[in-house]
Amino acid sequence: MIRKHRLSLSTTQVILLGFLITILVGSMLLSLPVSSADGKAVPYVDALFTATTATCVTGLVTVPTYSTWSSFGQAIILVLIQIGGLGIITILTGLMIMLNKKIGIGDRLLIQDAFNLNTMSGLVAFVKRVLFGTFLIEGIGAILYMLVFVPEFGMKGIWISVFNAISAFCNAGMDVIGDSSLCDYAANPLINIVTSALIIMGGIGYIVWWDVLRVVKSRTSQNRKIFRHLTLHSKIAIVSTLVLLIGGAVLVLIFDYHNPLTIGEMSFPNKLLASFFQSVTTRTAGFATIPQEHLTNASAFVSLLLMFIGGSPVGTAGGVKTVTMAVLVCSAVASIRNREDTVLFGRSISRRSISKAVAVTVTSFAIMFTSTILLAAVTDVASLDILYETVSAAATVGLSRNLTSSLNLAGKIVIIITMYLGRVGPISLAVALGSKKESQNIVKNPTEEISIG
Fold first, then answer.
1. How far apart are CA 80 and CA 88, in angstroms?
2. Fewest CB atoms less than 10 Å from the CB: which of 220, 244, 306, 429?
3. Burial of 326: CB neighbours in 10 Å, binned 0-12, 13-18, 19+
4. How far apart are CA 217 and CA 438, in angstroms?
């Protein structure tokens, strides 16, 4: 955002370099002895892995977060999570606002591209609302967590509550409670509900927040018609999220109902709670209330699909995004029915949007496929465990079937690169494809039909 040093940098390059610099600085700080709980420097590859998973809000860890890092190290991780969740450009803009620096046209273009907005009006106010809304929701989440963690852990429970609230909202999935994520709280309604709410709020996307508030304020006397007056983007994001959450929960409940290693021994209400949380957390959050390695194969593949899709655009979640998948599915249905237009909620989807959806999905799939092949080449474990690890890394989820901590050096490097590409790849591609520049070529190549399928 400093003009003289970024005149030649595009928004895509700013995002790529911003995340990379943040990861490198974070890894150097985490490699210091002061960052370690025992005062001995953690191997740099583990510091780099942790910095990457925090900045990319993934959650996969090679060393336990609660026991490996000192208070200083945990604070560094939390800062990296917050930066990764909000995004580099949002953080830089927030700092400029705090320092009363002028935000020029170039900075506004960066904000517009980063959030994929269609207008340049009110961009600074938009960033302020994003920051205020984020800290408000994280604060409420932390206070609610304290109702459980302070009685259990004493004053340490305050830090655990703050850490978990930020990690959950940013869809990072890291915690400082123990080595089993939230498995000890599988039957705790407050922990499940608060964590799920934070994950969903972070993953639904800021655009949906403000759109819902806009309609509520303008339709106070006709609240039952709120959905009708939402933008097409918000309608798709909300409906897709509900379908995935409910559908995923039902399938996990069915496939693992009698599995004694997951939910089989639970009461029916707790089975519902655990199944729903599994559906929520696979939307790129990474917390776990049931051991992922003990899921039935059917539930594991359902989780893989949910991880691949992820959350919604312009939020803290990863994956190809709900709106992207909805557009692709509806476009396929339209083709099957031999219809010219792809229609959602009475609106036609532009060809440009469909092309962007295809490009983002293909790019994400390519990252996952390549990393799966590479990880399979350097490790000797079950194929499902490898696939779970790479999809989780590429979609920035953070769920693992107990593979991450046993990765060798080559495996760690593969996952580090996968997490980075999974976080910045689809974002940067979406930004690049969203450029307002039009092609100057007036000569078009001849068109010829080919056979498909």
1. 10
2. 220
3. buried
4. 37
- Say how far apart CA 201 and CA 165 lie, in whole Å: 12
CB within 8 A of 79, min separation 6: which ones?
A: 26
Is residue 202 within 8 A of residue 317, CB to CB? The reply is yes
Residue 294 pLDDT: 95
As given in the structure block, the two tokens for residue 404 are 């991450």
The confidence score (pLDDT) of residue 117 equals 67
Domain boundaries, the chain: 3-433
List the structure tokens of 147: 């109702």
State the virtual CA torsion across 262, 264, 265, 267 in degrees, nearest 10: 110
CA dihedral sign of residues 130, 135, 140, 144: positive
> How far is it, in rounded angstroms, from Cα 37 to Cα 445?
63
N-term to C-term CA, the chain: 47
Assigned token pair, 365: 């799939």
What pLDDT, on the 0 to 100 scale, is given for residue 122? 73
CB neighbour class for 116 (10 Å; exposed up to 12, middle 13-18, buried from 19): middle
Q: What is the DSSP string of 370-388?
A: HHHHHHHHH--S-HHHHHH
Structure tokens at 205: 């996307």
Structure tokens given for 339: 């219809």
- Which residue, chain included where needed, has tokens 């498909």? 452
Name which of 404, 428, 423 is nearest 49 in CA terms: 404
Q: How far apart are CA 364 and CA 298, in angstroms?
A: 23
Those residues whose C-beta lies under 8 Å from the C-beta of residue 304, and which sit 6 or more positions away, are 387, 388, 391
Give the pLDDT means over successive 10-residue stretches in the chain (453 positions). Answer: 52 81 96 95 96 93 94 96 87 78 71 67 81 94 97 96 96 91 94 95 89 79 72 92 96 96 95 96 91 96 95 85 93 89 88 88 92 95 95 93 94 95 74 52 68 66
Question: How confident is the model at residue 32, as a pLDDT?
Answer: 96
Q: How far is CA 258 from CA 85, 147, 262, 271, 421, in A?
A: 37, 32, 9, 10, 38
Q: What is the largest CA-CA distance in the chain?
A: 72
Q: How far apart are CA 112 and CA 270, in angstroms?
A: 44
Closest CA to 426 of 396, 397, 449: 396
CA distance 63 to 66: 9
Question: What's the token pair of residue 152?
Answer: 């259990």
Three-class secondary structure of residue 343 per DSSP: strand
